[in-house]
Design goal:
Helices cover 46% and strands 13% of the residues. By secondary structure, the protein is of the alpha/beta class. Helix 10 (248-257) runs antiparallel to helix 14 (308-325). It starts with 7 loop residues before the first strand and ends with a helix.
């Protein structure tokens, strides 16, 4: 009988038939007519998704992504009844600071692959050995190679507790945590739970902003711009959020049946990332790491693991948890907090909002490039921000 706390090596090896079936399904797609507008206001544009499908079926190579994943140390372990997949890369440098980084939706551990080298071996990327990290990148339950939850209750608070257990199980007595998107919610909860050994947290999406921000009578220019961006998102850009918050099972049928539907659903996120991805396919002009192959690596993993519906359900779980907690005071984050705002994010968070959300804010920086998928698009810059945010905690 296996030990539930056992950490087992893991390798990716998808069957040839699954890849052949993917190509058959792409070829059998039924296309709608072209959108009636010149922008993305009606959704993912036909020219973008058709070029994505053409490249996916004819030129894309999933085995290259498999090889990239399998070149890294991957493991699984059972925590709270679920099989958790994670990448664990130890630095070659002594006294490296352990960091656990949590992905979001529609991302996965794949969006973090570019930061592995800069974080674990900074001397090979223009940094110093004193900047090194041991890196842990887990897949949220219901995403990628982690198991799908078989029961309700796997909200971001429960994931945060599982990550604390994972770091304890890996033998780390002190560590830091980072996250964006859903990963920011997990990391925020880790900060509020303050498990033993957690020294500080860093995020690149301000959750309070998505909830409406901090309107006031005397708003600054930065605050007004953020409020306008949030209002635009909440009135015309959050269709995926409403559906996954309320009816994830319904959209799940399309996500498990049609790879083109899955791809379109995942592309229809934020405006900045959408247009960057569209240019990568239509104009063959990628923005940093947002290349055609990397984008399809992520979408293909969702398809081959069949996790479109279970990932969508994680939003429903978080909504249900928020309803149950309505009106109850939340524990404050008393640990040091770092925050980086990227110009292409859904909204550019003002420092004043970050300070109101986190009175223990110790690091804040506005960078000049990158967006919602900053780790993917600008991995070197993303790693630089993590190093700067946690420098005082070494």
């Amino acid at each position: 009988m296996s030990n539930e706390a056992e950490i087992r090596p893991f390798q990716v090896d998808m069957p040839d038939e699954a890849i052949a079936d993917l190509r058959r399904r792409i070829a059998a797609v039924r296309w709608p007519s072209r959108e009636l507008v010149a922008d993305r206001s009606q959704g993912v544009q036909l020219a973008t998704i058709q070029e994505l499908a053409r490249y996916w079926a004819a030129d894309y190579d999933w085995r290259a992504c498999e090889a990239r994943l399998n070149a890294l140390p991957q493991f699984t372990t059972e925590i709270d009844g679920e099989n958790i997949h994670f990448i664990h890369v130890k630095s070659p440098h002594e006294n490296a600071l352990p960091v656990i980084i949590t992905h979001g939706w529609p991302g996965s551990v794949i969006e973090m692959l570019g930061v592995v080298g800069p974080l674990t071996d900074p001397t090979a990327h223009g940094g110093s050995a004193g900047d090194a990290f041991d890196l842990v990148v887990p897949s949220i339950p219901g995403y990628g190679f982690s198991s799908e939850p078989a029961e309700v209750g796997w909200n971001v608070g429960r994931v945060a507790g599982a990550w604390a257990e994972l770091m304890r199980r890996l033998g780390y007595a002190r560590y830091v945590a980072q996250g964006g998107d859903v990963g920011a919610a997990v990391t925020d909860n880790m900060g509020r739970q303050a498990p033993e050994g957690l020294l500080g947290i860093h995020m690149n999406l301000l959750l309070a902003g998505l909830g409406g921000g901090y309107p006031s009578l005397n708003t600054s220019e930065e605050e007004r711009a953020a409020l306008e961006a949030v209002a635009t998102f909440r009135t015309s850009g959050n269709g995926y959020l409403i559906e996954q918050n309320t009816r994830p099972q319904t959209i799940g049928y399309a996500l498990l049946d049609s790879p083109v539907a899955l791809a379109a659903w995942m592309l229809d996120h934020d405006t900045d990332a959408y247009y960057k991805i569209s240019r990568a396919f239509v104009d063959k002009q990628p923005s940093g790491g947002l290349t055609r192959d990397h984008i399809l690596d992520n979408i293909t993993m969702y398809w081959l693991t069949g996790t479109g519906a279970s990932a969508a359900r994680s939003y429903w779980e978080n909504t249900q948890a928020a309803v149950r907690a309505a009106g109850q005071p939340r524990p404050e984050v008393k640990l040091p907090v770092g925050f980086t705002t990227f110009p292409g994010e859904i909204f550019r968070a003002p420092r004043s909002w970050a300070e109101k959300s986190y009175p223990s804010l110790t690091y804040f920086n506005e960078v000049d490039r990158g967006g919602h998928f900053a780790a993917w698009e600008e991995p070197e810059l993303f790693a630089t921000e993590i190093r700067a945010a946690f420098k005082a905690l070494r």
